[in-house]
Write a structure and sequence with these properties.
The chain has a four-stranded mixed sheet with strand order 5-8-6-7. It has a two-stranded antiparallel sheet with strand order 1-3. Strands 2-4 form a two-stranded parallel sheet. The protein has one domain: Muramoyl-pentapeptide Carboxypeptidase, domain 2 (2-Layer Sandwich), CATH 3.30.1380. The protein is of the alpha/beta class. The chain has six helices and eight strands. α3 packs across α4 and α4 packs across α5. It is globular and about 45 Å long. The chain binds zinc ion (ZN). Zinc ion (ZN) binds next to β5.
Length: 199
C-alpha cells in the first residue's frame, strides 16, 4: 500500500520514464540518448524552457542536458535519484554565456550569473518545477548579482530560500543547495497541484 501511495505521489502519476528527450539542435545538447528518458511532462518542460531560452537569448549557448533517467526508470549509476524520469541535470553558463564542454566544476567566479539566472527563471516560469539543486557558492553568486540589479530581496529569498529555512512539503519552485552541484544544476519536474476551486 505504501509503495502504491508513493508511486502515486511521484513519477507514476505523470507517466514514468516513457518518453525520450529528442535531439533539438540549437535548443539543447543531449549528453547521452540512453540516459535521456523521462515523463512526458519533463520532456515537454525541457523543450519549452530551452526553446524560450534560445528565442529570448540567442547569444547564449544551447543548454547541455545530462542525465534524465534510463528507459522505464529504475536505479541509475552515480545518482541517488534520476530513477523516476522526473529529474534532469543541466549545464551551467560560464562567462560569456558559454556552456562548458561536459560537466566540469565551475567556480562561482566563472559562473555567468545572469545567464544561469535566466535558465533558472525560465524553468520556474513553467510552474512544473518542484525544486532545483545547486551549489551554495553559485547560489550566493546569483543572489548577489540579482541584488545588484535591484531585484527585490524578498523575491530573491522566495526563490533562493535562505539556508536554515524550514520548507513545508508543498513548497515548490525553490533553489536549494546540494553537495556535488558545482558543475550542473539538478531540476525536478512534477505536475503543479490542481488549483483549489473557488466556491
Ligand atoms: Zn541530478
Amino acid at each position: 500500500m505504501l509503495t502504491l501511495v508513493l508511486a502515486l505521489t511521484t513519477g507514476a502519476l505523470a507517466g514514468g520514464a516513457t518518453e525520450r528527450l529528442p535531439e533539438a539542435p540549437g535548443l539543447l545538447d543531449r549528453w547521452d540518448a540512453d540516459r535521456s528518458w523521462g515523463t512526458p511532462l519533463i520532456v515537454d518542460t525541457l523543450l519549452h524552457a530551452t526553446r524560450r531560452m534560445a528565442w529570448e537569448n540567442p547569444h547564449l549557448d544551447p543548454v547541455t542536458v545530462g542525465d534524465l533517467s534510463v528507459r522505464g526508470g529504475g536505479p541509475m549509476f552515480g545518482h541517488s535519484t534520476h530513477d523516476e524520469g522526473i529529474d534532469a541535470d543541466l549545464g551551467l553558463f560560464v562567462r560569456g554565456g558559454r556552456q562548458p564542454d561536459g560537466f566540469t566544476d565551475v567556480t562561482a567566479d566563472d559562473l555567468d550569473a545572469e545567464a544561469t539566472w535566466k535558465l533558472i527563471a525560465t524553468l520556474l516560469d513553467t510552474e512544473n518545477v518542484q525544486f532545483i539543486l545547486l551549489d551554495q557558492g553559485h547560489i550566493d553568486r546569483i543572489r548577489g548579482w540579482l541584488a545588484s540589479t535591484g531585484y527585490p530581496q524578498e523575491a530573491i529569498d522566495a526563490v533562493f530560500v535562505p539556508t536554515g529555512t524550514r520548507l513545508t512539503w508543498d513548497r515548490r519552485g525553490v533553489v536549494r543547495h546540494a553537495p556535488n552541484h558545482r558543475s550542473h544544476l539538478h531540476v525536478r519536474v512534477t505536475p503543479p497541484p490542481p488549483a483549489v476551486p473557488l466556491n
